[in-house]
Amino acid sequence: MELETRFFGDQKLPIVLTHEDIDFDIINWSRREKVRIRALLSDFGAILFRGFSIKDIEAFECFAEAATSGNWVEYLETTSPRDHVKSHTSTSTRYNNKHTIFFHNEKSYSAEWPQYVFFYCDLPPGNGGETPISDCRAIYNDIPEEIRLKFQAKKLMYVRRFSNSMGIPWKKAFNVEDKIDLERFCQRNYIEDLSWAPDGTPVLKYVRNTSVIHPITNDKCWFNHGTFFNAHSLDPEFKTVLTSVFGQEVLPYNTYYGYGEEIEEEVIMLLRGLYEKHSSSFKWQSQDVLMLDNILVAHGRNPFEGERSILVTMTEPVDYADTISF
Q1: CATH for 138-273, options being 3.40.190.10, 3.60.130.10, 2.120.10.30, 3.30.420.40
Q2: Category of 136 on φ-ψ map: left (φ > 0), alpha (ψ -120 to 50) or beta
Q3: Given pLDDT bands bounded at 50, 70 and 90, which one contains residue 1?
């Protein structure tokens, strides 16, 4: 019997795939139907597989491998706390459950990112905790032309500063042993400017484009961490704490026009509004699997109450140098 497809009300994404028989072998179906899965992702950007017996991490990873190539992507250049759970699976970001995690495309700040991101609902939250998703094609098309052209001309600078007193240690973030290892990492990963602060911690500065051409659909997609990492996007309470500790100019993360010109607060607020405008969400159920095309769709996290366990794995690495970006 064919899988059923539906949507949540009038939301355009995700498309939901389900079956009346909970024991339907979704893993073998996915292995046979890779082409169909990619076609659905090209159309919608996100698929929610609901009502299937995906009981544990082993089944979750078997499903991700069946639906794609199983070419796993490591979480290097770590920017958020998460715990390795097993094999290729980790927890989603461990961040104060009272706060929102804003929309972002996984590792879009990096030289290598996953084409596909999978979320598995191990334990649904009692209240809230949705993983909202936003259409990056629609965001790109909705950005005023003068702003898009300005980013295209000036590009986007990422600045990342580490600390010995808080945040992720730099050796752990890059999985390196010493300064020489990090210098080599930067050379391999298109990071143009690496310097060392007096306390021995690194400061990384590098320039990227803000948009890419999707390798399958040829659509123009807004694809970057420019809004997510920008100081104007910080939660006001959190921003006050950080600036009191570090100062505005030495925040752990910030983004600028290349090379170093501040992005106007009104531009960041406009971009934030567009992510929200083109977003949708759903309530997690146990054993749900959400599959995202990481270029077509950005994701975030809503605040929640109670316990919540959403696990993540990533496949199909994409190299920045192999993309058409602008």
Answers
A1: 3.60.130.10
A2: alpha
A3: low
